[in-house]
Design a protein that fits this description.
The chain is α+β, with helices and mostly antiparallel strands and about 250 residues long. It is built from eight helices and eight strands.
Length: about 250
């Protein structure tokens, strides 16, 4: 009996060592005597001790911080750009068996693609159309990593550093554009004002009494201010009428 117990206990312990547990976001790629056997997890499962070997894969979305890269744009401007890339393992089998180190491979592919795509675009497109550049990088890297069972979820350029001389030139260009816009607005306002004055003069010419009303309005506006001297504009027609009346009275 003691001999049986001494045999059973080691066998039970040996069998228990074959139990594995993976979390919800983990998968176990099982190799049996060196050959692919299957993918296990999440949860608890059993493998044959000493026969089966497990490679653990994390299937959560991973973040890759692409270091700043120096490259030359299509219009010959030297810039430094960096980006962040998000990817996820879809097929643990291919991620293990198709590539030696998929994390390092994804980083190298994204870094090279970032330099190439930036070099194919002019500086204005890089600064103004970042979404377009991000999409181009994502498509290219996703195509590269697809045979490895990896999907690229998103790519975002973070910073674009340009030389100081180019920054000053761009600032001068922006200032010139703003000045041009201001002059156009001022010229448009002057044109509109001149048209309105021309229309007003035509109306006054057709109806002289409007000029007298405007003079009275001017007197009212002057009266509301704290002025020590008030200049009253006397219509020439009123002077003429006064002279005529005085001549008639003198003759009579």
């Amino acid at each position: 009996m003691e001999a049986l117990v001494s045999i059973v206990i080691p066998v039970v312990i040996f069998a228990l060592t074959g139990f594995k547990v993976d979390r919800e976001y983990e998968r176990g790629v099982i190799f049996r005597l060196g050959r692919m056997s299957g993918i296990k997890g999440p949860g608890i499962y059993w493998t044959i001790p000493l026969i089966d070997q497990k490679a653990k894969i994390d299937i959560r979305t991973k973040t890759v911080d692409i270091q700043s890269q120096e490259t030359i744009t299509a219009d010959s401007v030297t810039v430094r750009v960096n980006a962040v890339l998000y990817y996820r393992v879809l097929d643990p089998d291919r991620a293990i068996n198709r590539i030696e180190n998929y994390e390092f491979a994804v980083y190298q592919a994204s870094m090279t693609t970032l330099r190439n795509v930036v070099g194919q675009n002019i500086l204005d497109d890089i600064l103004r159309n970042r979404d377009k550049i991000n999409h181009q990088i994502q498509e290219i890297v996703d195509e590269i990593t697809d045979p490895w069972g990896i999907v690229i979820e998103r790519v975002e350029m973070k910073d674009v550093e340009i030389p100081q001389s180019m920054q000053r030139a761009m600032a001068q260009e922006a200032e010139a554009i703003r000045e041009k816009r201001a002059r156009l607005i001022k010229a448009s306002a002057e044109k509109e004002a001149s048209l309105m004055l021309s229309e007003a003069s035509n109306q006054i010419a057709e109806n002289p009494i409007a000029l007298e009303l405007r003079r009275l309005q001017t007197l009212t506006e002057i009266g509301t201010e704290n002025n020590t001297t008030t200049v009253m504009l006397v219509p020439t027609e009123l002077i003429t009428m006064t002279k005529q009346m005085a001549e008639k009275m003198s003759k009579s």
